[in-house]
Amino acid sequence: MSSVLSTAMADLDEDVVLAEIARLQGSGTPSLEIISALQEGMAIVGQKFEEKDYFLSELIMSAEIFNEAGKLLGTEATDAAGTLGTLVLGTVHQDVHDIGKNIVRSVLASHGVKVIDLGVDVPAAKFLEAIREHRPAAVGISCLLTTCFGNVKACIEEIDAAGLRDGLKILVGGGPLDEAAGRYVGADLVCKDAMIAVDWFKTRAAAAA
Question: Three-state DSSP class for 209?
Answer without folding.
Answer: coil
